[in-house]
Amino acid sequence: MAIPDPIRRFVEATNSGNNEAFLDTFTADAFISDWGRSFLGRGEISSWNQSDNIGVQSNLRIVRFEGDHDVCRVRMAVTGNGFNGEGDMMFKLDDGRISQLIIS
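Above: the chain sequence. Below: its structure as tokens.
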């Protein structure tokens, strides 16, 4: 299966530093859990984006992908001025957007 569009756009927006496009990949009531830290809704996700993602010039590369159209597990390689290394991201998709992202 090809990488679903919301995940592809999530990676592209992060790598290009496009905050607006990044936030547009999420539903209005989306939820992120980043190693146990919780962020609910686009406002909190925007703050997380600035402190942990685009704000620290993260660059993402998909190492492995598995899933279907609604739930996907992605092994992601991350470089930048924040976390560097590989980690797992579980995406739940809803109507062409990300409704839940669990980072572990």
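Helices lie at 5-16, 19-24, 41-52.
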